[in-house]
Amino acid sequence: MVVADLNRPDTLQPAFTGAHGIFLVTNFWEQGTDEFAQGTAAVRAAKAAGVKHFVWSTLPNVEAISGGRFHVPHFTGKAKVDRVVTEAGFANHTFVIAPFFYQNLTDALAPQQQLDGSMGWALPLDPRVRCIHMGDIRELGDIVAGAFALPDQAGHRGTSSPSIRSRKTVFLAKWPTHSLTSKRTRIWARIRRIELRSQTESPADNRPRLRRGRD
Question: What's the pLDDT score for residue 155?
Answer without folding.
Answer: 65
